[in-house]
Amino acid sequence: MRPGDVRLAGELGADAVAFQFGRESTHSVRVEAARSMRQAITPLVGSVASFANNTQQEVREAIKQLRPNLAIFAGEEEDAFCRAFGIPFLKTFKQEALVPGMDGKQLHAKFPSAAGFVFRAAQASSTTSQSDWKWLPSELTKPFLLSGGFRIDEIFEIITTVEPWGIVVCDEIEARHGLKDGELMRQVVFESRRADCHEVQNACEGTLPDTRHD
Ligand SMILES: O=C(O)c1ccccc1NCC(=O)[C@H](O)[C@H](O)COP(=O)(O)O
């Protein structure tokens, strides 16, 4: 919600910055404000427009002004609505709204145009064991993000347990409502990168060709 926070997020290593346009979000911003904050995004850092039950006109106007790389739809939108804007999108599902037992194939069939999904956990605490994530659809082949108000000290564990494509943070990195805290942002990026490195190291262990020359 502040240009300085937008710039710092990119400088600290965030992959993308999201602007929220959902009417019910207490973090929603006006299109004009988002457009001017977009200028503060560091080159190569993505810009995301996040919607929740906005009208077609509102989404069209925000996309026209902001030119985001990606849209997120976190309301009751259907696939046809989301794909009509011609940019890649993720569809958000709240944990409590997911049909129990729904697997990745069913989700993909319901949202064939989605580039991926966001799964928003209902319970922010005690989310670090595999069994806490049983509600996630199985057999997901598209990338997905996790959101849900994580504690910073559990981010490493969550990423290495669930192996999402990324995580979304909002309140977790705020000093006060709407005001991001640089040190908390740094810690989130650090923990996420630490988890990435751990995963890459695990994946590579024993599989890299021996490039040493005697
Ligand atoms: O969950 C998402 O899909 C998401 C996408 C882009 C940015 C943020 C996202 N999640 C966090 C939130 O939706 C809320 O901003 C957060 O839970 C705080 O709620 P509120 O104060 O109503 O904005």
From TrEMBL:
This is N-(5'-phosphoribosyl)anthranilate isomerase. It comes from Lysobacter soyae. Its EC number is 5.3.1.24. Keywords: Amino-acid biosynthesis, Aromatic amino acid biosynthesis, Isomerase, Tryptophan biosynthesis. Residues 5-189 form the N-(5'phosphoribosyl) anthranilate isomerase (PRAI) domain. It is an enzyme of class 5 (isomerase). GO terms for molecular function: isomerase activity. Coiled coil: none annotated.
